[in-house]
Write a structure and sequence with these properties.
The protein contains 15 helices and no strands. It has 326 residues and is an all-alpha fold. The chain starts with a helix and ends in a 9-residue tail after the last helix.
Length: 326
Amino acid sequence: MTIGTKFLLARYADCSFWLGRYMERAESLARILDVNLHFSRDSRGSQNWRSIVQLNADEERFDEAYDVASYANVVHFYVLDRDNPSSIISTIRAAKENARALRPTISTEMWSHLNVFNNTLSALTSDDLKYSELSRVCAMIKEECQTHTGITEGTFFRDQTWYFYLIGREVERADQTSRLLDIKYHLLLPPNQAVGSPVDVSQWNAMLRSVAGYHAFRREHPRGMSPKQVAAFLLFNMSFPRSIALCLSEIDGHLHRLRSGFGLRAGASAMEILDETRAALADHSPDTVIQFGLHQFSDYVQRQLIAVTAAVRAEFCGVVPEQNAA
């Protein structure tokens, strides 16, 4: 392999990794906004829109731009605010830029769809985000992201670049699930009640719907719902696509395929971090995670995913992680 080919592979690998992350991130955010609109209500019927800001660790950036975490401000911040790198419009724009760099390696259908999707978002206005319209906009975003997934699945050539795309997608899925589980688990607790106390079932329904997991959860638990059951499902279930355990397993499998199928020698550090994380997960049960502290465990998972990202980008791509948005 020539030096030039190595350089191109590194560039394509990094762009493909971030394309997978950004598209997954946009769909997750649209789902969370939609679920918060319809299902996330406390016992008094009110909604906590600031929880979405906390979920994405955007408090400082949001507070600099807005006075209050109202429906209108939070939704604008996360859908149309071009100054917010976490907004859906910024995320899809970043996905498009990574796809532009990948243009020689991706299909015309992938590229065309991303262009149309980006243009559709750019045409949205504040009127499209009114309370009565948000669900429709979120449904459109989710469907476009899922269309991208289908086009990608059917047209992306199965070389190294494909596996970096999958790694990025699974890293983002695990990160989103860990953040949601961490923030929602604590925010949903009534005042003066400990972790594990009963809370409104509708709130736990909302958390499962945020990761498209409600119906899958019901296949495992046809009746009843407890915080421990929800936490266990999102942490350990090996059949649910967005559980942390399955995402970590998928990332590990993709790294193994890169090394065994394409003769790449990099990736050892990332795999060591994954082995450590999966062992920590295997050593815990739902009871011990709650006893240890769900916040602490979720924070550990997030730090490990940051370390995996840094290792993948350093070993395969030769770039500093801060050069691309996390």
